[in-house]
Amino acid sequence: MIRKSQPAILRFACAPADEGVIAPPVPAKAYLPDWFRKLPAVDPQVESPTNSGLTVKRCLPFLDAMTTGWVLPLAATVRLQIAEGGSRVEAGWDFDRPMVSNHGMHQVRGNPMGNRPPCKFHNYWTITTPPGWSCLFVNQLNRPNGVFEVVAGLVDTDTYRSPIHFPFFATAEDGPYVIEKGSPLVQVIPFRRDTATIAADIGAECPEEAATRQKILRNTQAGTGWYRLFARAPR
Q1: What's the per-residue H, E or C state across 101-134?
Q2: Which of 59, 99, 151, 204 has the highest count of CB atoms within 10 angstroms of its CB?
Q3: Which domains does the chain have, with CATH numbers?
Q4: Which of 121, 129, 139 lies closest to 161 in space, CA to CA?
């Protein structure tokens, strides 16, 4: 008898008192921004005979990046006050748990954000993966919010079973900003670690590789939906 393999389970757990109070995680595909939902697959205003008018809504790699994994939202509403050219950030919240804290500037001295101080959003969900699985935590892919940018991190969530907090930089201009409860905070991408390493083979392509590249490129440019139809075809 053939048994179906059981799916790997990504576990989000919170304290019993927080269930139904803090915002829960959701699949990333549930957080598509309004601008993307409203975007047509083909722009009717493009009238050039050499431009098909296709938009990123027809770009599967772009969509896959946005919809892969889960989104961990902000547990409760936070107010950020950005001042002095971004070099001072103060946070406030009406919640019985800390929501934002600070890192020392010495920890990131010389980073590209300049004088913007490193801050940290507090998370109250413990994320657990099966043995051999880790999670990549990144700023929401292809949907910058214009107010803050989370610093990416990778955690072995099969062994580290405790809440993970998320460093960030406030990126907006000076002024007050309200980030509502449930706003997308970080994108969680679980992946299976492989003990085997992969080596790189770097050099000029062979004739067969060149022919394959050109065929795929031309099919893609022809608007045949090659990537959607064939890139993931069973091998």
Answers
A1: EECCHHHHCCCCCCCCCEEEECCCCEEECCCCEE
A2: 99
A3: 11-26+71-192 (2.70.40.10), 199-235 (no CATH)
A4: 129
